[in-house]
Amino acid sequence: MSIEKNKKGKILEEAAKIFARDGFEKASVDEISLKAKVAKGTVYYYFKSKQDLFDAIILEGEKRFRELIENKIKNITDVKEKLKKIIEAEKEFVLSYQEEFKVFIGYILDRKHSFGIIEEVVEEGKKQNVFRKDMATKEMAMSIFWTVVMTTLNGQSEKQKEFILKAVLV
């Protein structure tokens, strides 16, 4: 990895911690540059603004989350197994990238967010008559997402898969 990539990565890492702790409004580029051990100008070299830096954290988090899920479900055709792997991937993401996830949660709560890949699997399960059809796809995906988040964060994730499967299976 080049020095330039290390600087940008360190800025993103420290910014995620500060945004997670302080929120967007209270976070400062001065503190981010101090914690990342780079000049403030270096932050602005990579990111046009604090908003641009925040957006980069969100995009990186979404990319990591999607890649983690895609890697877990590739080559799996059974929709129930796909859903189990999505649950595992989400739990892993929440535990592995806690600062990024805190920033991501704030972003999700502030906007209407699409739960893309989860919605795709839910829709696939409905078409195969494996998942309930009496609940809208978006709401089912959102319910799955938030159930995994809350049970993971509360340390009660041991029966997550069974609970979710009982709720969505026909």
Overview of the structural elements:
The chain is mainly α and 170 residues long. The protein folds into two domains: 1-47, Homeodomain-like (Arc Repressor Mutant, subunit A, Orthogonal Bundle); 60-168, no CATH class. It is 78% helix and 0% strand. The protein has nine helices and no strands. Helix 1 (3-26) packs antiparallel against helix 2, helix 5 crosses helix 8 (137-153) and helix 7 (116-127) packs across helix 8.
**Number of E-state strands:** 0
Biggest sheet record:
none
How many distinct domains?
Answer: 2
- Unreliable residue stretches: none
Radius of gyration: 18 Å
Number of helices: 9
Shape: elongated
Provide mean pLDDT, rounded: 89
SSE-based structural type: mainly alpha
Terminal-residue CA separation: 49 Å
Helix content: over 70%
Beta fraction = under 5%
Order of helical and strand elements:
HHHHHHHHH
